[in-house]
Amino acid sequence: MNWPLIIIALVAIVPIFFVWANHRTKKQHATFSKDDVVSAIQNVISGSDHDEWDLFLSWPIQDPYLESIRQRCIDISKEYSGVEKGKDIASQGEAKLNLILNELENRA
Fold it and tell me: In whole angstroms, what is the distance from residue 14 CA to residue 18 CA?
């Protein structure tokens, strides 16, 4: 076997895979719906799943209204993360997220 060629191929393939995966994730999150946003917020409030919340905060959304919600959530996360021991988002931040949830649920 020609090990140097195999190593070169692997070194080339791994970054290509991650570029492809990130592009795919970005496209998927760009089409987030109201239900996806509600789910991400509910999961961080319940403390059950950080991955969905982290992905929600990381990738822009095409819908301008939902993107504005995402931006507000980013601000809340920055202000209230790590403030209250044992909680991902401090109680005041959770209250603000609950207001956003109510706003989303009342929107047609």
Answer: 7
End-to-end CA distance of the chain: 63
Per-residue pLDDT of the chain (108 residues; tens, 9 = 90+): 688 877 887 787 877 777 776 667 666 767 789 999 999 999 998 877 678 898 899 889 999 999 999 999 999 999 998 777 777 788 999 999 999 999 998 986
Distances (CA, A) of 31 to 25, 56, 96: 10, 11, 24
Report d(CA 54, CA 38) in Å as an integer.
14
Output the pTM of the full model. Answer: 0.75
Q: Kindly list the domain boundaries of the chain, sorted by start residue.
A: 31-106
